[in-house]
Amino acid sequence: MIQKTNRLLWWVLSIALLISLIPVTGYAQGSDPTDDDVNAVAKQLYCPVCENIPLDACGTTACEQWRGIIRDKLAEGWTDDEIKTYFVNQYGDRVLAEPPRRGFNWIVYLVPVVIFAGGGYLFYRGFQQWRSPEPDRNLRNKDKTTPKPVKLSEDDINRVEEELRKRSQG
Amino acid sequence: MVAEIGFGSLFVSLIVSIYGVIAALYGTSNHQKKWILSAQQAMRLVFPLLTITVGSLIYLLINNNFEVVYVSKVSSLSMPLYLKITALWGGQSGSLLFWSWLLAGFTSAVTIKKWDRDQDLLPWVIVVGLGTLTFFLVLNTFFENPFVRYWQVNQDIVQSFSQPAGGFIIGPRNGSGLNPLLRHPGMVIHPPMQYLGFVAFIVPYAYAMASLIIGRSDDRWIQLSRRWTLWAWLFLSLGLILGARWAYDVLGWGGYWGWDPVEISALMPWLSGTAFLHAVLIQEKRGMFKQWPIVLIILTYNLVIFGTFLTRSGLLSSVHSFARSTIGPIFLVFIALTFIASFWLLSSRWDKFKSRQELTSFFSKEALILISIVLLMGMLATTFWGVIFPNISELITGAKVTVGPPFYERVAAPILGGILTIMVICPLAIWSYVSFKHLGKLLWKPFIVSLLGIVLPILGGLTKVPAVIAFWLVAFVLAVNGFEFVRRTRLRRKTESESFLEAVFRVFQRNKRSYAAMIIHVGIVFMALGIIGIEFFQTETQGTLAEGQELQLASYTMEYEELQIFDTPDARNVARAVVLVKKDGEVLDEIYPRRDFYYDSNQPVTIPGVRSTLVDDFYVILVDWKAVTSEGATFKVYHNPLVKWLWIGAWVIIFGVVVATWPEKKSSMAVSKNARPK
Amino acid sequence: MKKILLWGGLAVLLVFLSIGLYRSQQGQVGKGEKAPEFELISFSGETHRLADYHGSVVILNFWASWCESCKPEAKDLEYAYQYYLNRGDVIFLGVDYVDTEPEALGYLEEFGITYPNGPDLRTEISQAYRVRGVPETFIIDQNGIISHVQIGPYSSFEHIKSTIDPLLD
User: Fold this and answer.
1) Which chains are within 8 Å of B by 3+ CB pairs?
2) Mean model confidence pLDDT for chain B
3) Were both Cys, which of B93, B239, B621, B624 would link to B604 (CB 3.0–4.6 Å)?
4) Residue B511 CB neighbours (<10 A)
5) Residues A84-141: pLDDT tens digits?
6) Cβ neighbours of C127 in B, within 8 Å
7) Which residues of B touch C3 (CB under 8 A)?
C-alpha cells in the first residue's frame, strides 16, 4: 500500500514536471506588424547593452532601434526564430533569455537534472536507511550486567535542583 | 563639524567592536568573567555609537551639505524630506553604513536578555556578532567612507575625509539627486526590510556557532534563537515581497519578479532559511536529524554574506548593482574566512550531532517536512547554479550568456507544485505515525471540495492543464486546512462547553504554533494563487491612441480621455493621462497612468494606473520613450488575473508570524471547567 | 570522502570567485599589452584583420550611432584619417558596437566618415579589448603593442595627433 502511494505521488509530480516543460512556440507574421507582434518577439530577447532588461521593456534609443529592426523583419515575413538567430549573430548569445543549447552550454541544463536526480536518489537511499535503522551495535553490552548507580553528593543534588528550577522558569 | 562627529563615532565604534572581540576571547580562554562582562558592555555600546553616525549622515542629507560627496551623489535640493532621509541607503557607502547600524542593533539587542543561564555561550556569541560587525565597520571606515568630502587643491578637486595639504572644502550648489526609479514609497520600506531580514539571521547563526564552538550538541541554541529566527524569516520574506510589489508598481513591465541575479541572491537565503525553520521543527518534536538545522543556519547566513558580496562587488551584472567599488577583494577574504571557519567547525563537531534517525513512514509529518526541505534545497542549488553560470561560461569559453526566466521558471514551477502537494497532506499527518485509514478519513471531504478547484476553472473555459492542476492543489490545501481547523474546534467544544468563538480562541491559545503555521501556509497558498494567475494568464497589448480613442484587452476596454500636463514643486514635470476602464460599455473606473520627468537628473519615470480587484488587475502604463501628447500617447496595457492575492497572502503571513511570536503567559496549569475530582 | 568533496567544492568556489572578481576589476586591455587579434568585416564587405596591418600604426575606434559622446570626435577622426592618408602606414578602423546597420550607415554619412567601419559581430572584438563603453580608442603600434588607450572622446584633432605622432619617425 505504501509503495503504491509512493509511486502515485512520483507520477503526479513527474507529470506536472513534464507538462511545465512544454515550450511555447512562435509563429510567422504577415505584413504590418502591430506593437503586440513586435513585443511578442522582443519579450524573448534581452537588451544587448543594458543589464538584464527584456527588449520589450527597455526605454533607450538603442532598444527602440532594435525593436524597429524586429518590426521590419516581421514585415518581411521572418519567423521568431529567424529574428532571434539574426540578433544572436549580430550581438552574441547573451541577447537570448537562455544559453543556446550547444557545446559547453549543455552543462547549464544538465546540472539541475543531475542535482534533482542525485538529490532524489540520495534521499531515497537515506529514506531506506531511516526506515530500518541498524541496531546500535555499541549498545550490546559486553558484560551484560546493569551498571551500578552513581552516588550523587549533596552538592550535586543541589546543583541539579537549582538547574531544574531555572529551567522551569526559563 | 557634523561630518567629523559622524566619522568619529564610526571610528570609535570600530575600536569598541574590536575590543569586544578581544576581551571576549581573552575572558573565555582565561576564565575571567569580568572581561566577558566588559565585552558584553562593548557589544551594548556599538548601537548607540552607530546611531550617532547614522544620525550625522541623515543630518547632512537633510541640510543639503553637498560638500559631502555622498550627499551630492544621492540627494538634491528639490527632493522632499522623506526622500532625503531614505537617500541614506540610496548609494553604496550609505547603505553599507545602514547595514552596519542594523547589524549593531541586533547584536546589541541580544545583550539585553539575562545571560545567567547561558554563560558558556555568551563570549562566543559576542565574538561572532562583533567579529562580523567589525568587518563591516572596516569596510565603512577604510573603503566606503560616507563622510568623504570635496576639497579644492590648486586646480584639482580631490575627494578625502581629512583635509589635504593646501586644500579647502568646496561645496557644489546642488546634488544629482536620487535615481528617479528610487523616488518611490517603495524605497522607504523595501531596502530597510530586506536588510533587516538579512542581518537578523546573525542572531541564530551566532548562537549556533557559539554552541558548536563550545562543543554542545543540545538544542538550547534553538530555543534561544527561535523568536529571532521567526522574525528574521518574516523580514526577509517581506523584503522580497515588497521588492516584488515595487517592481510591479513602478517598473512598467507588468511583472513582479525578473529573476535578476540580485533578486536571486536575496531569494537563496530565504530558501535555506525556510528549510531551517522546518528542520528545527523536526529536531524539537522528535529529537532527530539534528545535523540539519545546524547545517541550514550556517548555509543561510553564509548565503546572506555571499549575496551581499555579489551585489556590491561588481561580479554580477544587474539592474540592482551598485557602482563598481574597491570592496570586492577584502569582501572575498571575509567570505573565505567565514565559509572556512563554519565548515571546519561543522566537520569537527559533526559526530556530536549524530542522532537517532528513524522514519516510520513516507507520509509521517517528519518525512513530509524532510521532502519539502529537499525540494527547497534543490531549488536553491539550481538557482545558485544559474546565477554563477554566466561567469563560468565567460571564464571558460569567453562567450557571455544570459541565464534568464525560462531557466528558473522551469524549475520553480514543479517545485512549487510539489510543495503545494505536500501542504495538502502535512496538516493532517501526525508525528512519527501514519495510519492510512485515518489519513483517508480526514482527506476525503476536503478532496471533494477541492474538485471545485478543477470544475470551476474548466467551466470558466480553462484548458491549460498545469493551471488546472495548480488551482486544484490550491483549493485542496485551503480545504484541508479549513476542515482540519473546524474539526479541532469541534473536538474542543465537545469536551468544554464553550461558544464557537471562544473555542476558536482557546484552540489557538493551546496550540499556538501549529495554528500560526496553518495561517502562514494559507498565506503562502494565497500567494501561490496570485502567482498562478499572473504567470499563466497574463495578457498584454500596446497601442498608440489619440484622446478619445480606445484599446481593448481581455474583456475590458480602456479609453484615453484626456491629458493633463503640469509641474510639481519637487522639480518634476508630470504628464498625467486620464483613462477610463470600461466593460460592456459601462465605465468601471478612472485611472491615472502618468509620466514624471525629473529635471534634476533628466530622467523620466512612468507610474501605472491600475484598477485592482480580487479577480484581476487592469494595469495601464505610459510608454515613456514615446511622445505623450493629446494627439498620441502610447499605452501598454496588462491584464493580470488574481495578482491581488499575492499581496493578500503577504498580509496573512505577517498575521501568522505575529500569532506565532505573540508572547505567552507563563504556563500555568490548565484547568478544565468541567473537571471534577471524583 | 564526503568531506573531501565538500572542501574541494568550497575551494573551487573560492578560486572561481577570485578569478571572477579579478576579471571584473580588470579594465580595458592596457598600454604595453599585445593588441588582441580580430577580424572586422566592414559594411562594404571587406575583411580587415589586425595581422594584415603589422608594420603600420592602427587606430581602432569603438563607437555607436546611439552614442551621444561619440559624435564630437567623429569629424576629428575623419580629419585625422585624411591627414595621414598619403603616408600609407597609418590605418583607421571603426568598430560599430552593438548597433543597427541603417542607423550606423546614417551616422557615417552624417559625419562624412570614409575609413573602413564594420559591426562588432557577436561583440567579439569589444569583449577581446574589454571595452566598457563607447567611445573608446586604442592606438596600436607597428609591432602590435597597444601604445595608448583613449577612454571617452578625443577633445580635438591635435589630441588625436599627439597620440599618433610619437609612433612615427
Assistant:
1) A, C
2) 86
3) B624
4) 14
5) 999 999 998 889 988 988 888 899 999 999 998 988 888 888 888 777 654 444 555 4
6) 398, 400
7) 347
